[in-house]
Amino acid sequence: MWIERTVEPVLRQLAATRPVVVLTGARQTGKTSLLRRLFPQHAFVSLDLPSEAEQAEKDPQAFLQRFPGPVIFDEVQYAPGLFRHLKSAVDSSRSRHGRFLLTGSQKFTLMKGVTESLAGRAAIVDLETLALAEIGRQRNMALDDLLLRGGFPELHANPDIDGPAFYASYIATYLERDVRALAAVGSLRDFERFLRACALRSGNLLNKAELARDVGIAPSTANQWLSILEASGHVILLEPWFSNRTRSIIKSPKLYLADTGLLCALLNIRSPEVLRDSPLIGALWETFVFQQLRHRERYGAGGGLYFWRDRTREVDFVVDRGGKLELLEAKFTALPSPADSVNLRFVRDIVGSRNVGACVVVCRTANPFPLAEGIGASSPRDLRASDAETSG
Length: 392
Known about the structure:
By secondary structure, this protein is of the alpha/beta class. It folds into 3 domains: 8-126, P-loop containing nucleotide triphosphate hydrolases (Rossmann fold, 3-Layer(aba) Sandwich); 132-233 and 259-278, no CATH class; 284-389, Trna Endonuclease, Chain: A, domain 1, CATH 3.40.1350. Helices cover 43% and strands 18% of the residues. The chain has helices at 8-15, 31-38, 50-58, 60-66, 82-92, 107-117, 132-135, 143-149, 153-157, 163-182, 188-200, 208-215, 219-231, 260-266, 272-277, 281-301, 342-351; strands at residues 20-24, 43-46, 71-74, 100-104, 122-126, 204-205, 235-238, 254-257, 304-309, 314-321, 324-330, 356-362, 369-372, 375-378. The strands form 3 sheets. It has a 6-stranded mixed β-sheet with strand order 9-10-11-12-14-13, sandwiched between helices. A 5-stranded parallel β-sheet has the order 2-3-4-1-5, sandwiched between helices. Strand 9 and strand 10 form a beta hairpin.
C-alpha cells in the first residue's frame, strides 16, 4: 500500500528545474521508494551493493558512462569519490534537469560531498517519518496509538508488522551499520546507552555534561556522539527564540527524538496503557507535537520553529513567519483549562499581541474550542498553516 507523501510535489518541481536533487533522511523513512515511484523512467543503482560502490569510487568515469542519467543513485555516501565526477557531468550539460537523483542516510559523508562538489547544482530535501496528516490519508488511528506506533512508513503500509520487533531490529541495524561507519565508536553498548539517555531527555534542555556523566563518557565523546545522532536524522535540536525585547532568555537548545515510535521503543513503552501511565507522557506528547509542527513548517508553511524560555517560564513552540509569531503549548490532556494557557499569555504580553497571530494549546481534544481570550485548544489533527493568521 502506497502512502502519499506531502513532499511529492516539491520533489517533482525540483527535478524539473535542477540538475541534481539530494534526498536525505534517516534509514527506513522511504527515500528510495519515494524516488522510484515518482521517477519510474530513471535508472536505479544502489550503492549499498559493494560491487557498484567499488566501481563508483575507484573508476567513477566508467561508472558514469554506464549510468549517464537520468538515474537514481541510492545511498550515494558509500562512494564519496563520485561527487567530483558528478560535478563535471552536470557542468557538461547544465540544462538537463533531474538528471541525477541522490539519496543518503549518513549526512556527514553525504553533505561533505555535496557542499564541496555540487554547491549551486543540487537541491537538498530532508525526508522525515510520516506525519499525522500523511497517515490520516490511509488509516484512522487514535492519537495514543499513533504516538506509540511512530511514523516509519513500513509500519503503516503493513499494519500487521509487530512494532516492538521492528524497532528492536531497527536499533540494532542502525548501531551496526551507521554508527560504525560514521565514527570509531569503541563500544556500541555505551553508544546505545547514550541513545537511550537522549530518549529520556526528549523535550528537555540539552545538557551535554549531564549526558556524559550519566553514561560515563568524556564530554568530548558525548559531543561527537550527539553529532552522529543528528547527522543520521534520529535526534533534532530545537533552538530558542529571542529578540532584543526579551531578557534572561535561556540559550541552550532543546533535544528531541525525531520519531515517537523509536522514542517509545527506547523507553520500553509497548502499549497504550503503559504510555498513558508513564511519568514521561508529557515529554512524549511534546515530542509528537514537535514532529507534526516540524513537518507542517518544512513542507508547507515555511516558518521557523523555535521554543521560548526564561528562568521561570516556557512556551513549548514558537513559529516565526517574518516576525509574526504563533505560540503553542503541548498538553496531553483531552480537556485543557485556562490555567494551561498562562505561559502563552505571559509571552504574548512580552512580545506584544500585535506580533502574535495565534496562541494554541495542542491537546487531545476531539474538536477545537476557545480556551481563553485569544487562545484556542486544538488537536494536532487540526493544526494548519492558516492557524498562525487567526486568534483561536
